[in-house]
Amino acid sequence: MPAVEVENLSKSYGSKRALSDVSFTVEEGEIVGVIGPNGAGKTTLIRILTCLLKPDSGKVRVFGRNPCEARGLFVLLPQDVKAHFYTLTPRDYVYHYLRMRGAKRAEARERAEKAVQEFGIDYADEPMSMLSGGMVRKALLAMVLSADAKLYFLDEPTVGLDVENRLKLWEVLREKVGESTIVLTSHYLNEISSICDRVLLLKGGRVRAFGRPEEIAREYLSGLHSKVVAFGEVSLDGFLARKAGRNTYIYPRSKAEEREIVEAIKRTGVPFKVEGLTIEDVFIAGGLDDGDR
Ligand SMILES: Nc1ncnc2c1ncn2[C@@H]1O[C@H](COP(=O)(O)OP(=O)(O)OP(=O)(O)O)[C@@H](O)[C@H]1O
């Protein structure tokens, strides 16, 4: 039985369409990443899957049940989770969370210790009020992931985490997967694709692609050869180019085009480098920005 089944799911807020005809399944034991730009519908989807929001139409099943009936089987890290009890410490948070979930005192103490160790929380006994936003976020993640649930929904788990802690989180998630199923949302497209078995690309409330990251990249970027990143403004006629802050990304369609682009940029004196394509380029160059797929 799939862990999550979604068929033709739609949801609007008043006249605003947040999700349109979304369908996908998550098999038990896999990590699925829901990715997409701001306003794509990621949080709306997670809220529906976790019984916080009712869909307008469509079928949603979590382990074969309505999400509200499956509440005991999953845990959620919401996007806007906060630590409200400022005098409690990270260790207290994990401990009381486990106690609320039915663990006995000794077991909760032991698992809380394991959770703080696993995440390298060396501030486990300091009150939450003394911690930075990222430190609190990491403590709450450790709390949620200590649950030993069959299914985890993590909405933007990496928000506020520095690169080292993001990598730590990916490591912890990869260890959990197999016995647990994980559905997470993130803006870090490249990182998410490196840990997820499959990704769901959402844009404007619609599924633009669903599958293994490398297959999606191959399908959507099949006409492109590589990416030339110019560290400055460069305008070259006849090539697929996108501005990215101060940089310009130029997408050659062949090795010959790449050589042509490199020669042209050398003449401008702007520094540059040639890179391989990543799933991020699906959004930047692969036709998902035009809203017509
Ligand atoms: N409570 C609400 N009332 C009205 N519109 C809403 C509400 N919540 C979300 N929306 C709209 O629904 C769409 C999808 O929002 P959602 O929060 O699901 O996107 P998201 O992909 O999670 O975005 P982000 O990456 O910015 O968190 C957006 O256009 C948003 O403006």
From TrEMBL:
It holds the Pfam family ABC_tran. The keyword Nucleotide-binding applies. Residues 4-229 form the ABC transporter domain. The keyword Chaperone does not apply. Keywords: ATP-binding, Nucleotide-binding, Transport. One of its GO terms (molecular function) is ATP hydrolysis activity. PROSITE patterns: ABC_TRANSPORTER_2 (PS50893). InterPro entries: AAA+_ATPase (IPR003593), ABC_transporter-like_ATP-bd (IPR003439), ABC_transporter_ATP-binding (IPR050763), P-loop_NTPase (IPR027417). Belongs to the ABC transporter superfamily. This is ABC-2 type transport system ATP-binding protein.
